[in-house]
Amino acid sequence: MPAFYDAPGSLAGTGDQPxxxxxxxxxxxxxxxxxxxxxxxxxxxxxxxxxxxTAIAYAKAGASYIAVGAGSDVTLDTAAIKNAxxxxxxxxxxxxxxxxxxxSATSIDNAAALVQASFGGIxxxxxxxxxxxxxxxxxxSNLDKWWDxxxxxxxxxxxxxxAFLPLILKGGDKTxxxxxxxxxxxxxxxxxxxxxxxxxxxLRFAEFLGVEYGDKGVxxxxxxLGKVPTDKWAGDVWEDYEHDMPQLMAMKKEIVSKDKxxxxxxx
Length: 267
What we know:
This protein is α/β, with parallel strands linked by helices and 267 residues long.
């Protein structure tokens, strides 16, 4: 177990470790090669290695249409995405690379129109939008940089969800996955107040989507992928991909009945 679990203000007791088995790599229960997503339409928005790897995983699972939205300065290895499907003896997906600005409503609306014209709808949407924060305590932080981190890391996911929700409602799975970070669980991640606050907002925003569109079949989730080194930082419940999914699924009845894995005030 990482040392910080026993540190003051650590994640101990916050739900970060509901299973006694954790993982740092793909394992049989979540192997994309064991999933059949043939015919599915997937959208991944964000930049960095996590988002491209996510697209590759969906290709391995057989997704037929994969759109990846990222900034204009981001390159996407579309060949790697298609090759992943071919290596799994599957038909390569149609890959749509969309250059967009996650801080611009117009840019994202245009991207949604393009996906609408190309795919007709979306079954699964993965939103991994965030901005790194300078590691300084609040009184020492740069005002503009602090606000830009909070603004971009919150506005981006909102704009994407807002623009693409009509396409999700046309899909079959109606699944929205926010790639959040465990920083929202407590203030243990020092010198990350702007980023951590935005991640907490992600979780609550996902809950609102569940309340407002749950009756239409929309399934929003926030997941923490684990402590993953990248070129950038990385249903209406909180989930950590380090958790062992078979163990977690065995806890389903308890989680549902006691309304666990949610941020709430307990008195």
